[in-house]
Amino acid sequence: MTVADIKKTAEGKMAKSVESYKSELQKIRTGRAHPGLLDQVHVDYYGSMVPISQVANVALIDARTISVQPWEKGMGPKIEKAIRESDLGLNPSSQGDLLRVPMPALTEERRKDLTKVVRHASEDAKVAVRNLRRDGNEQLKRLLKDKAISEDDERRAQDEVQKLTDRTIAEIDRLTQAKEAEILAV
């Protein structure tokens, strides 16, 4: 493994960490409805737990209401129960085959709780990035120990890995601030 391989691997994994963090942020609701909100809700489908999107059409009726149209007649009550029991705080209403899921307005207290959740997710993402930096630095030290690179090359490569880490953490901070502003906007 070369220095370039180590940097490329670290960069790729850090990019994946940022993508994972972005998907985590999308799960945190802000009062506006979006179909991806129900992706984490699973429903019992003939003995196996599957995401709602695999047993129903999930679409937006308007900015504050999601519609769920089950593909099979008997799935409506099961989907309704799964949404109600999820930790999203949603209360679906049934209209024949169609389920309407209105988004309740966020209270000030709930907004502050959501910003705490965002900060916690941000810290988890930063820890993952720092762990990747540590792994990269350990690989560089191994190369130095095996005399595959010089001390100067190792020091230069560690500086580049650190700069990559700093850029990635700055990106996570930017995403966090944007999400907090979105949550706190009334």
UniProtKB/TrEMBL annotation:
Molecular functions (GO terms): ribosomal large subunit binding
Superkingdom field: Bacteria
Listed Gene3D superfamilies: 3.30.1360.40, Ribosome-recycling factor (1.10.132.20)
Family matches, as Pfam families: RRF (PF01765)
Coiled coil: 140-167
InterPro entries hit by this protein: Ribosome_recyc_fac, Ribosome_recyc_fac_dom, RRF_sf
Classification via SUPFAM superfamilies: Ribosome recycling factor, RRF
GO BP term, example: cytoplasmic translational termination
Domain Ribosome recycling factor residues, every copy: 22-184
Record's subcellular location: Cytoplasm
Key words of the record: Coiled coil, Cytoplasm, Protein biosynthesis
Entry's Gene Ontology cellular component terms: cytosol
Principal subcellular localization: cytoplasm
Family: Belongs to the RRF family.
Record-linked PANTHER family: MITOCHONDRIAL RIBOSOME RECYCLING FACTOR PSEUDO 1, RIBOSOME RECYCLING FACTOR
NCBIfam families, alphabetized: frr (TIGR00496)
Function: Responsible for the release of ribosomes from messenger RNA at the termination of protein biosynthesis. May increase the efficiency of translation by recycling ribosomes from one round of translation to another.
Name of the protein in question: Ribosome-recycling factor
Source species of the chain: Aquincola agrisoli
Species lineage: Bacteria, Pseudomonadati, Pseudomonadota, Betaproteobacteria, Burkholderiales
